[in-house]
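User: Could you write out the 3D structure of this protein bound to iron/sulfur cluster? I've included everything you need below.
Assistant: Certainly. Input first, then the structure.
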Amino acid sequence: MIKVEIDEGSGFCFGVVTAINKAEEELAKDGTLYCLGDIVHNSREVERLKEMGLITINHDEFNHLHDVKVLLRAHGEPPETYDIARRNNIEIIDATCPVVLRLQKKIKQEYTQESNEDKQIVIYGKNGHAEVLGLVGQTTGKAIVIEKLEEAKKLDFSKSIRLYSQTTKSLEEFQKIVEYIKEHISPNVTFEYYDTICRQVANRIPNIRKFAASHDLIFFVSGKKSSNGKILFHECQSVNPNSHFIDSAEEIDNNLLMGAASIGICGATSTPKWLMEEIFKAIKSRL
Ligand code: SF4
């Protein structure tokens, strides 16, 4: 008998659950709601909410809207978005995750605080990612974004540094960047760093590694755009090379199912539980 199991620890984080609940509440009242960007990096969940009346728009479309309700997703937005909403009489349903909101405030405080020091505000994150744009926006675009340790080398070590992290980045890489800066910063300036990585993500790494290592075959379910999905999949692969990234049951290769005594299904913080259950049923029906 082949064992098939869904990882209990996979699925939406509380930030995403809250955003989706808010969207569903509004849709139940009004039937239509705009959402700035994909509510979650999972096309299947976006599709489900679209059928309920959620209309996903980009920033260009947002600029031209007036007198409507727009939901801001968990990633958060830069101050400019709120300014546009005020000008265009847009009611904001703010689903920015409290963890992201706290980080935005911290960065803004650092940036606006009076100081004699010439500081570089550095964000370890993915260039162009919605959350990072929201963070950089707190510094009127002045913050420096570094994506990996390699890029920390371009910093000016004769100036003070304040280092923050996008909530979904790797804790390990963050620590390497901290060590590198400590080693290279001039003794005449200051370096402060804030580990702002969300534990909803960081804590999943040891758990998912354990889960992936305990099965012969892993199907990692996630939208291809999810950065958290990429990180967690990489972790699965590092302990179990027989791990496969899929975003729907159609992508399951039947040949893989042969010879596996135990199959694990897991996913990202943006993967809905119902989708993992769908994959579970699809696998069961093919065994
Ligand atoms: S991963 Fe963490 S910070 Fe990001 S939305 Fe989820 S709970 Fe919030």
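The CA atoms of residues 13 and 269 lie 5 Å apart.
User: Perfect, thank you.
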